[in-house]
Amino acid sequence: DIQLTQSPSFLSASVGDRITITCRASQGIDRYLAWYQQKPGIAPKLLIYAASTLQSGVPSRFRGSGSGTEFTLTISSLQPEDFATYYCQQLSNYRFTFGPGTKVDI
Amino acid sequence: EVQLVESGGGLVEPGGSLRLSCAASGFTFSNYEMKWVRQAPGKGLEWVSFISTSGNTIHYADSVKGRFTVSRDNAENSLYLQMNSLRAEDTAVYYCARATVEVVVAPFGDYYYYYMDVWGKGTTVSVSS
User: Fold this and answer.
1) Mean pLDDT of chain B
2) How many CB pairs below 8 A link A and B?
3) Does residue A1 register a pLDDT over 90?
4) In chain A, which residue's Cα lies nearest the Cα of B49?
């Protein structure tokens, strides 16, 4: 099975900060990676797929990059509504496993 | 409006059964593969099952294999998850999600980039005596 790790698991930041979250895969997954944002009590929201393609309607301050085993999600200028938990997900095989999540808090 | 609405969750004793439903609207349900994802209280997301457009290809997470059965009725625009032999560790919010694929044509082979772009609000399953 392909395992995903995320770092950091928790990130304390302020409005306006630039933050980066890293997702690593246990084996190469090309660019078959997506990023989701989840707020408490709400379903996840797709941000990025194919490692770097921004989902329609997602602000351009979100940027994804990487391929193979290492990927990053960058938020260029954190906004109040961005405080949430972020998950990466591999989609290179049918299992579509998720990373453990990164909580972005004030 | 594109929408998925789950139902059927509730409180059940260990060893019991529940059947979850997911009603789709606003898109051509039969054109999309579908998935169930769950989230235990305070925990991360866990993929549970996958079903192809026709229902001919099905996969399960090891944690539910042999106990859960996914199915779909394209005529009714509905997805189902039959959960048997429930355990305390199955307690979670269960989401259904649509899997969309973007095909990138390349000289040496096409790339199929999947993503889960539509999610329901979830239905809560609690397994406890």
Assistant:
1) 96
2) 68
3) no
4) A95
